[in-house]
Specification:
It is built from 32 helices and 59 strands. By secondary structure, it is α+β, with helices and mostly antiparallel strands.
Length: 1414
C-alpha cells in the first residue's frame, strides 16, 4: 500500500570532492538522517531537506582506522557509532547549541522586487544547530561485521564468531557476550535436541526486534537462525538458536516488529519470510518473495538489502544487479522498478539499470526512501545456457555505470490511510495520503448533507471543475495548507467521512479538516491550542463530529476528544474524555466507540448528542475489557473493530442469520474482532440465561491477515455480501467469512454450519477498498511516463504516477461455493447481483478460469468442476451469450473440451434463433465455421440471415451477406455450382469504396443535408419526340459503379452484367428478393427502405420487375392505413368547406392569368414556391422562374426539378390540377377571378404538425415508387402526403404507360375506394380528394375512351396474383425457404380506423371551370 510518486530527488553532499556514500540511517524519530561516506559523516534535516553538520576524518585517521562502513544511532539520538573497515568503532556525541535558535535564517534581499510575499516561502521549522563533540574510538578484536542497538547497549558481531556487548561509553559488558560455538542450535525450542555449531562460522548480519524477543542472524556459510533467550537481558547461558530451515544462501535480514516476522534475502534474488510457530517454538515459512516474470524474466542478482516501513506494513527489497521493489507484509508485490519503462536507450534493465541501490532507510512516516546509489555494479548477471532473457549479438558489451552515479537519492512515496488508521476500512472511497498532500479518487464529489446558502453557491461553481469518481483514473490533489503543514510535517493520520465530503488531517501536532464540496480548510484559530496535543490513536468521523485519540502535552495525559464539524476548531467546543493510557486505535460501530489503549484495555463508549445542543457530543463508558492475554505486546494489535458477526452457537442454530443480527442489535451483543500480528481473533459477547453479558473464549478465524473489512451497513437484497467478513492475506489471497442461509421453508440442519470461510487468490491488485454491493475490489498501481531531461539528472528516470485499478470478485465466490457443492447459495448470490452491468462478464470469467485450469491440466481430474459450472450458468438467461463469449476468447484447442460440457454448438445456435438472440447466434456461426464443414456453416448462415431480415437486424444481415459471399465453394462437401476463384473480402474494396447515396442518408437520418442530383435541369429545352417515357431518371444508387460479381437471376441486380454470376450469388440474391417481396406485400415500407439502404439492394430495379406482381394493390384503403401506421403519420382531422386545398401559391404569378398565353406556355411558367411553405406542402418547384429558394426547404432544387420533369408524349392527354383545379390553365372566361381570389383556408390544424423526418422518408419512397412505375403505392403515398402535384405526375405517368388502360383503370378504382373511405370513415381526407377531382374525372374519361377489349380483364386481385402473373416466390430448395417452411404470407389488412371527425357531409360538385387539356 506504498506507492512511488514523481521523480526522486538527489541530495548533493556539501563537500569538496566528497567521498563515496556507503550507508544512510535515520534516527528513531526519522527527522534526522545520517549519511555515511568512506571518510565523512553528514547529518541532514528531513523537512526542510537541508544539511546540518558534516564531519570529515583526516587522511591519517583513515589510514590508521580504516574507511567508514557502518553507522548506527543511539535511541535518544544523542550519539552515533561508526564502524570502520579496520575493526574500530568511532563514537560521536551530538550536542545542540542552545545559544543559537535556528541554523538557517531567512533574510530578504535588499531588492524589493525579490522580497518574499508568499507564505510558502517562509518555513516555520527551526533547524537545530548540531555539533559533534567528545569523539572517541575503540578497537574491536576480530573485526566488526555488523552492529545493532539493544536498549542502551550495542551488539557487535565479529569475524571470530562472537557477539560482543558494548556500552555507549565504550565499555565492554563481558558477562553478556555471546560465543556462537557455545550456543545450542536446533529446529525448534526443544533444548534436548540442540547441537552447538561445529563449523567455523561467524555472523555477517544482525537484526534485533524487541517484540520478537531476539535476534535474527545470518551466518557466513549462508544459513540463518533466530537467537532467543529466556530473559530480555540475554544471559549467555539461556540463549538458544533456532534454525531457519530449508535455505543455505541467505545474504541479509530484517525484522518486522508489529507482525513478528523475520525476513531474509537470498542469493537467488528471492526473499523468504519466517514466523514463529507458537506450538513448537520453531520457525515456519510464512511466505516467499518471488519476482514475477512479467516484471523481470531473469535473476537480478542476490538480495542486498531489506527494510520494513516504520508501520511494518511494507518491505523494500533491493538487488545487487539494480532495481528495487516494494512488498506487502505477507508477500504481495506492490511495485518493482525493473518492470518500468526506462526509454529505448536502456535495453537491459540489469546491466543498464538506473537504480543501483546499496543501502536504504525509510524516513518521515515512510513518505521518503533515502537510498545510496552506487555507480559501480556488483552484479551484472550470470549467463544461463537454457534461459537468457536479453541475448546479445556479437561481443559482450562492458558494464555501464549507473546513470545516477554515487549519490544520495530521496524517493517520494504515498500510502493508503489503512496503513496507520484501520478505521478507514469501512469506507468505500479511495484516497491516498502523502507527506503534505492528499490524492482523492472518491465516488461522489457532492455530499448529500445539507449545506448553507454560501456553501451551495460555491459548490455549484466548483462542481464542474472537480470531477471525482471511483471509476475515474484522474486524481484530485489537495495540498495541505502551508500554515499548518510547515510546523506539523508530515501527515500522520487522515480520515474521510462516509459521504466522502469531509477529510480530517492530523500531522505532528494538532489537526485540520477539509471540505471537498466547498474546497475550504478549517484550522484552529488559536495556534497554541493546535500545538498542545498530538494525535496518537487515529481519528474518525461520527455523523457531524470528529473523534480523535490524542496526548495532551500541556496536561500530560491521554484523551479522547470530539470536535463538532460545523463549529470552528476550538477547545471550547470540544468534548474531552480522559483515558488511562495512550490511545493506540479507535473505531466505531453505529453509535458505539471502541478505544484500544497501550495498557491492552479495550473501552467501549456510547456516543450521543445532548438534547437542545446539537454541537455538543458526549461519551458514556459502558464497558472495559482487558485484552492483555490476546497479544504479546499492545503494539502487535494491528486493528480492532466491533461487529454483529458471530460464530454459531446452540442458541443461534435455531434462528436465521438475519434474526441473529436483529437480536444482537436489540441486546447490544456486538463482538470484538482484533487483528493481532496477522491473526484475526473473534471475541463474542452473549447474554446468558441470567441476562448477564459475558465474553466467550476467543476464536481464531484466520492467520497471515493484513487488512480486515467489515461492511458498513447491511443490505436486505444482498445479505451474503453485506453480512460477511473480508480478510486480505497477502500472497495467500482473499478470505471471506460468508453466511449461509437455509432455503425458504427448509429448517437448518444441526450439522450444517451457518458460516463458511472461502478463499480465493487475487492477482495484479492490492485491495484498498471493497464495494460490497457492487462486488468490486478497488486498488492502486504504479505507472510511469518518460519525459526528456538532463541525461545525468533524475529527470532521465521514469516519472511514476498513480493509476486506479479494480477487479470483480463475484466469480471467485461463485466458484468456491460450487466447488463445495453449495450451488444453491451461489445461485442466491448471483441472483442478487444479476442487475450489475458486469454480471455476465463475471459468469464469463468463472467459466473461463475453470476451463483454462482443467483443460490444460497434465494430470487427470477426478472431480471436474466444469460440468457443475456449466449447469450453474445455464440457470441464467445469458447462458448462451456467456458460453460464446468465453469460447471466442479461448484457444481453439480447448473448444472441444468446452463443448463436451455445454453441448453442441449447433444446438446452441438453434436455441439462439428460437430466442431471437441473433447477435449471439452470429458469434456461434464463427465457431461453427471452425468446427464444422463449410457447407454446415453456409446452411446455418442462411438460417441466421432469414432471421436477421425478419427481425430488422440490418447490420447483421449485411455482415452475413458478406460472410456467405466469402465462403469458398471448394471447401463445401456438397456439390455446388462453379464459383469464381476470387473470394470477396470482408471489408470494402479500395477500388469501389462503400458510399451511401443521398437518398440513403435521407431515409436513415431523416433530413437532406446535401442536394440530391437525381435528374437533369429543367432549364434544358423540352424533348418533344422521345419514343418512350424518359422523364424519370434513375436513382443515384444505380449509377454507382460496382466491381463485385452479381447474379444474372431475376434479382434486383439484373441491371448489371450477369455473365459472371455464380450460383452462390444467385442464392443470396434470391433470399434478398424474397424478403423484399415479403416487406412490400405486408406494407412495411419503412423496413423496405432500411433494407435497401443497409444491404445495398437496388430497390428501383426490383420494383420495376414487381410493378405488375407484388407491387399491385387491391385494397388502397389498407395501403393508406399501413402507411399511417408504419410511418407513425398523424391522421388528418376536421374538414374544409371548400372543394379544394391550398397547396401552392400560384395566384402571385402574372403569367397564369394572361389569357393570351397558350397551355404549354402556362405550363412552362408554372412554379411552386417552397421558400416558406408549411410542412404539408409538396416541395416541388420549377427552376424556370428563376426565383430564389429558401435554405429551409426540406427538398433541394435538384430533387424538386427531378420530380417536375414529367414529360408526356404529345399524343397523350395531360391533366393538371391546382388549388382551384387549375382549370384556368386553359383559356377560360372567369379563370382570372379564380386565380386572384384569396386562398382558401388551410386543410386542418393537424396537417401543419406532420413530423419532418417521416415526411422526408415518405417523399423519398414516393420518388422511388414513381421511378419504378409502382403507381398503386405511389398514389397511396401521395394521398397521405396530400400532394396534388405528385398526383399530377402519377396520373400523367399512368396515361403514358404502355399498358395505360389497365393502370388507369386500377388507379381510378383506387381513388373510388379512397373517396368512399374519406366520405364515411376519415373525414380529414375529403378536402384533399375534392381538390383532385379533376384528375379523378380525367381518369374516368380515359377509361371510358379506351377500347372495351382492353378493359375486359379486371384488375388482378391480390389472391390471384400467383396464377395470373409470374409467381411471387419461385420454387427454391429447402434452404431458401423460411425456417418453418411456411413461406411469406400477407398479414391481415385490417387496421384500426382513424378517428372520424364529426362534421357536415360535403357534397361533391363538378367544378365548371375544370377542363381537360388535350
Amino acid at each position: 500500500m506504498y506507492y512511488c510518486i514523481g521523480w526522486p530527488r538527489v541530495a548533493r553532499l556539501p563537500q569538496d570532492e566528497p567521498g563515496t556514500p556507503v550507508q544512510v540511517s535515520c534516527n528513531r524519530d526519522r527527522i534526522l538522517v545520517a549519511v555515511l561516506t568512506t571518510d565523512s559523516v553528514l547529518i541532514w534535516y528531513n523537512k526542510p531537506c537541508v544539511p546540518i553538520i558534516s564531519h570529515r576524518r583526516s587522511s591519517s585517521s583513515i589510514l590508521e582506522l580504516g574507511e567508514n562502513c557502518i553507522l548506527v544511532w543511539k535511541p535518544d539520538s544523542s550519539m552515533i557509532a561508526v564502524v570502520t573497515t579496520g575493526g574500530h568503532v568511532v563514537f560521536y556525541s551530538i550536542v545542540v547549541l542552545t545559544e543559537v535558535k535556528t541554523l538557517y535564517d531567512q533574510v530578504d534581499p535588499s531588492n524589493m522586487s525579490l522580497k518574499r510575499e508568499s507564505a510558502e516561502l517562509y518555513f516555520k521549522e527551526n533547524v537545530p544547530p548540531l555539533i559533534f563533540s567528545q569523539a572517541f574510538e575503540i578497537s574491536v578484536p576480530g573485526g566488526v561485521t555488523d552492529i545493532v542497538t539493544i536498549r542502551d547497549e550495542l551488539m557487535i558481531s565479529t569475524k571470530d564468531g562472537h557477539i560482543l556487548r558494548y556500552m555507549w561509553d565504550g565499555q565492554l559488558n563481558r558477562d553478556y557476550c555471546l560465543d556462537l560455538r557455545r550456543i545450542p542450535f536446533c529446529t525448534d525450542q526443544q533444548v534436548l535436541r540442540a547441537v552447538p555449531l561445529v563449523d567455523q562460522g561467524y555472523v555477517t548480519h544482525l537484526s534485533y526486534s524487541p517484540l520478537l524477543g531476539g535476534f535474527t542472524i545470518v551466518l557466513s556459510d549462508g544459513r540463518a537462525a533466530f537467537l532467543v533467550a529466556a530473559t530480555l537481558k540475554f544471559d549467555p547461558n539461556s540463549v538458544q538458536g533456532i534454525w531457519a530451515g530449508g535455505v543455505e544462501d541467505i545474504t541479509c535480514t530484517a525484522s518486522n516488529h508489529k507482525f513478528r516476522l523475520m525476513g531474509f534475502g537470498r542469493k537467488n534474488s528471492q526473499g523468504i519470510v519466517y514466523s514463529i510457530d507458537e506450538t513448537t517454538g520453531g520457525l515456519s515459512v510464512s511466505h516467499k518473495l518471488i519476482l514475477p516474470t512479467k516484471d523481470y524474466p531473469g535473476c537480478p542478482g542476490p538480495v542486498t538489502g531489506l527494510r520494513w516501513t516504520p508501520d511494518s506494513m511494507c518491505l523494500a527489497m533491493v538487488w545487487a544487479g539494480g532495481g528495487f521493489s516494494i512488498w506487502s507484509t505477507f508477500g504481495t508485490m506492490i511495485l518493482c522498478s525493473l518492470g518500468w519503462d526506462h526509454s529505448a536507450s536502456i535495453t537491459d534493465p540489469m546491466k543498464q539499470a538506473p537504480y543501483n541501490i546499496i543501502d536504504m532507510d525509510w524516513a518521515g512516516e515512510g513518505y521518503q526512501l533515502w537510498a545510496i546509489n552506487s555507480a559501480e555494479r556488483k552484479f551484472t548477471g550470470n549467463q544461463d545456457a537454457e534461459f537468457c532473457p536479453f541475448p546479445k549479438e556479437g561481443e559482450e558489451q562492458p558494464d555501464e555505470p549507473s546513470l545516477m552515479g554515487n549519490n544520495v537519492l530521496i524517493i517520494p512515496f504515498v500510502k493508503s490511510p489503512l496503513s496507520v488508521n484501520p478505521a478507514m476500512s469501512a469506507l468505500d472511497k479511495l484516497y491516498l495520503q502523502g507527506e503534505d498532500r492528499l490524492y482523492l479518487n472518491s465516488t461522489e464529489n457532492v455530499s448529500s448533507i445539507p449545506l448553507t446558502k454560501a456553501e451551495t453557491a460555491e459548490l455549484k461553481s466548483s462542481t464542474s471543475a472537480n470531477p471525482q469518481s471511483s471509476a475515474s483514473k484522474q486524481w484530485t490533489v489537495v495540498i495541505i495548507p502551508h500554515t499548518y503543514i510547515s510546523s506539523s510535517w508530515p501527515i500522520r493520520y487522515t480520515a474521510m467521512d462516509d459521504t466522502g465530503t469531509y477529510i480530517a488531517v492530523a500531522g505532528r501536532t494538532g489537526l485540520v479538516h477539509y471540505s471537498t464540496s466547498t474546497r475550504k480548510w478549517k484550522m484552529f484559530g488559536n495556534e497554541t491550542q493546535e500545538k498542545e496535543f498530538v494525535v496518537t490513536g487515529g481519528l474518525l468521523w461520527w455523523k457531524d463530529f470528529l473523534v480523535i485519540g490524542c496526548y495532551n502535552l500541556t496536561s500530560n495525559r491521554d484523551e479522547v476528544r470530539i470536535y463538532p464539524r460545523e463549529a470552528r476548531l476550538d477547545n471550547s467546543y470540544s468534548s474531552v474524555e480522559v483515558v488511562e493510557a495512550q490511545v493506540l486505535l479507535i473505531n466505531k460501530l453505529e453509535d458505539r466507540l471502541i478505544v484500544y489503549c497501550s495498557n491492552s484495555h479495550i473501552s467501549l463508549y456510547d456516543i450521543y448528542t445532548e438534547v437542545g445542543n446539537p454541537l455538543q457530543c458526549k461519551l458514556r463508558k459502558v464497558q472495559d475489557v482487558d485484552a492483555s492475554l490476546l497479544s504479546i505486546h499492545p503494539a502487535c494489535v494491528v486493528s480492532v473493530s466491533l461487529s454483529h458477526l458471530k460464530t454459531e452457537s446452540v442458541r443461534q442454530r435455531k434462528e436465521s442469520e438475519r434474526e441473529s443480527v436483529e437480536r444482537e442489535l436489540r441486546n447490544d451483543t456486538a463482538s470484538l474482532i482484533l487483528n493481532v500480528s496477522g491473526k484475526v481473533v473473534l471475541v463474542q459477547r452473549e447474554r446468558t440465561n441470567t441476562d448477564e453479558l459475558l465474553y466467550s473464549a476467543p476464536t481464531v478465524l484466520a492467520g497471515q491477515c493484513e487488512q480486515v473489512w467489515l461492511p458498513r451497513r447491511s443490505c436486505s437484497t444482498k445479505p451474503h455480501l453485506t453480512l460477511s467478513l473480508w480478510l486480505y492475506c497477502g500472497a495467500a489471497g482473499m478470505k471471506v467469512w460468508l453466511p449461509l442461509f437455509p432455503k425458504e421453508g427448509e429448517s437448518q440442519h444441526s450439522f450444517m454450519a451457518k458460516r463458511i470461510m472461502l478463499h480465493f487468490p487475487l492477482e495484479n491488485i492490492y485491495p484498498l477498498s471493497i464495494h460490497f454491493e457492487e462486488a468490486i475490489i478497488v486498488g492502486v498501481e504504479n505507472d510511469c511516463q518518460l519525459y526528456p531531461g538532463n541525461p545525468s539528472g533524475p529527470s532521465i528516470l521514469p516519472f511514476t504516477t498513480l493509476e486506479r485499478v479494480s477487479q470483480v470478485f463475484l466469480q471467485q465466490l461463485l466458484r468456491q461455493l460450487i466447488r463445495r457443492n453449495l450451488g444453491h447459495h451461489a445461485w442466491e448470490i448471483a441472483r442478487s447481483c444479476i442487475t450489475l452491468p458486469y454480471f455476465q462478464h463475471s459468469l464469463e470469467l468463472l467459466l473461463h478460469s475453470v476451463l483454462e485450469e482443467e483443460a490444460t491440466s497434465k494430470e487427470p481430474i477426478p472431480d471436474a468442476l466444469l460440468p457443475s459450472v456449466v449447469d450453474f450458468i445455464r440457470s441464467f438467461p445469458v447462458y448462451r451469450e456467456t458460453v460464446v463469449r468465453c469460447t471466442r476468447k479461448t484457444e481453439v484447442a480447448l473448444w472441444p473440451y468446452l463443448f463436451a460440457a455445454v453441448g453442441s454448438a449447433k444446438e446452441l445456435f438453434i436455441e439462439c434463433l428460437e430466442k431471437k438472440e441473433l447477435h449471439t447466434a452470429a458469434s456461434y456461426l464463427i465457431i461453427l465455421q471452425s468446427l464444422e464443414p463449410a457447407s454446415a456453416a453456409k446452411q446455418h448462415a442462411t438460417l441466421l440471415l432469414d432471421a436477421a431480415l425478419d427481425n430488422g437486424a440490418w447490420d447483421l444481415a449485411k455482415d452475413l451477406v458478406r460472410f456467405l459471399r466469402a465462403i469458398d465453394p471448394d471447401e463445401c462437401d456438397e456439390i455446388s455450382s462453379p464459383r469464381a476463384t476470387s473470394v470477396l473480402p470482408s471489408f470494402p474494396s479500395p477500388l469501389s469504396p462503400a458510399q451511401a447515396g443521398e437518398e440513403d442518408l435521407s431515409l436513415v437520418l431523416g433530413t437532406l443535408v446535401v442536394p440530391r442530383s437525381r435528374s437533369i435541369s429543367t432549364n434544358a429545352p423540352p424533348k418533344t419526340s422521345p419514343p418512350e417515357h424518359q422523364s424519370l431518371s434513375r436513382s443515384m444508387s444505380e449509377k454507382q459503379p460496382r466491381l463485385r460479381k452479381i447474379s444474372s437471376s431475376s434479382s434486383p441486380n439484373t441491371s448489371r452484367d450477369g455473365a459472371n454470376g455464380t450460383a452462390e450469388e444467385f442464392f443470396i440474391d434470391m433470399i434478398l428478393a424474397r424478403h423484399a417481396r415479403k416487406l412490400l406485400m405486408s406494407g412495411n415500407l419503412v423496413d423496405l427502405g432500411k433494407f435497401s439502404v443497409h444491404l445495398d439492394f437496388y430497390l428501383v430495379s426490383w420494383l420495376r420487375r414487381e410493378s405488375s406482381r407484388a407491387a399491385l394493390l387491391e385494397d388502397f384503403v389498407w395501403a393508406l392505413r399501413r402507411i399511417h401506421s408504419d410511418f407513425s403519420w398523424p391522421w388528418p382531422t376536421g374538414s374544409s368547406t371548400s372543394g379544394s386545398e391550398t397547396r401552392s401559391r400560384t395566384s402571385s404569378h402574372p403569367s397564369l392569368g394572361d389569357p393570351t398565353l397558350g397551355v404549354e406556355d402556362k405550363l412552362r411558367t408554372l412554379f411552386v414556391d417552397c421558400g416558406d411553405r408549411p410542412a404539408t406542402e409538396s416541395g416541388y418547384m420549377s427552376n424556370s422562374t428563376g426565383r430564389q429558394v429558401s435554405e429551409q426547404s426540406l427538398l433541394s432544387e435538384h430533387a424538386v426539378d427531378a420530380m417536375l420533369r414529367v414529360r408526356d408524349r404529345t399524343d397523350q392527354l395531360s391533366v393538371l390540377s391546382e388549388d382551384q383545379d387549375l382549370g384556368s390553365v386553359c383559356d377560360d372566361s372567369h379563370s382570372a377571378s379564380i386565380l386572384t381570389s384569396p386562398p382558401p383556408p388551410t386543410f386542418t390544424e393537424a396537417s401543419t404538425d406532420t413530423p419532418p423526418k417521416q415526411e422526408v422518408q415518405l417523399r423519398y419512397i414516393l420518388q422511388i415508387f414513381v421511378e419504378a412505375g409502382c403507381l398503386d403505392w405511389a398514389i397511396s403515398v401521395a394521398v397521405v402526403l396530400r400532394d396534388a402535384m405528385a398526383i399530377i405526375r402519377i396520373v400523367n405517368a399512368a396515361r403514358s404507360a404502355p399498358d395505360a388502360p389497365k393502370i388507369v383503370r386500377r388507379l381510378y378504382d383506387g381513388f373510388i375506394q379512397l373517396d368512399g373511405y374519406a366520405q364515411h370513415t376519415c373525414l380529414g381526407y375529403r378536402g384533399f380528394l375534392n381538390s383532385i377531382q379533376p384528375q379523378i374525372r380525367s381518369l374516368s374519361r380515359f377509361v371510358n375512351a379506351s377500347p372495351p377489349s382492353i378493359l375486359t380483364g379486371k384488375t388482378p386481385s391480390r389472391s390471384s396474383l400467383t396464377s395470373s402473373s409470374p409467381p411471387l416466390r419461385p420454387s427454391l430448395p429447402r434452404s431458401l425457404s423460411d425456417p418453418k417452411g411456411t413461406g411469406s404470407k400477407t398479414p391481415p389488412r385490417s387496421s384500426p380506423s382513424p378517428p372520424s371527425t364529426p362534421g357536415e357531409s360535403i357534397e361533391t360538385e363538378e367544378d365548371p371551370s375544370a377542363c381537360t387539356i388535350s
